[in-house]
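Before the break, one more example. Copy the sequence into your notebook; we will annotate it together after we see the structure.
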Amino acid sequence: MYRICKIMWIETGHFLSSSKNSSNCRMPHGHSRKVEIVLASKKLDENSMVCDFQIIKSAFGEFIDSFDHAMLINKNSKHYSYFKENFERVIPFDTDPTSEIISEYFFKHIESQLIREKVYTNKDGVTYAIGDYVFLERVRVWETSSCWAEYSGE
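Here is what the structure looks like once it is written out:
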């Protein structure tokens, strides 16, 4: 199996409103998150690659960047309306936005886009194609330099 990984960085704020979470996590705080997107294939394309790395940035970079400097929040939290009314970049989740939930959210979005689209054009107008045999293996989201969560859809 061949694998490639593209790493992107985002700064996000969040808090975990559930009473089952530790007191520190219930306070609004931020993380410098490293996001790893891993594509895999059993064969290589005509360029001897899984796919060009530019595909990952062209296809998914804008989506990942939309989370940069955003507040991720459980839409069922009593604080949700305050954040939504007072801040520009608020991204709601159906549950507390833990790193596990964020990695699953990213995975499902990226996987559905990868199934729908096989040709991507970057900002310079260069077109890249991705083979039908390429699949999203996993998304890993680092919360700190020593802690990460990942989702693989298995």
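The chain has three helices and eight strands. Residues 2-151 form a domain with the Tetrahydropterin Synthase; Chain A fold (CATH 3.30.479.10). Try to locate both features in your own notes.
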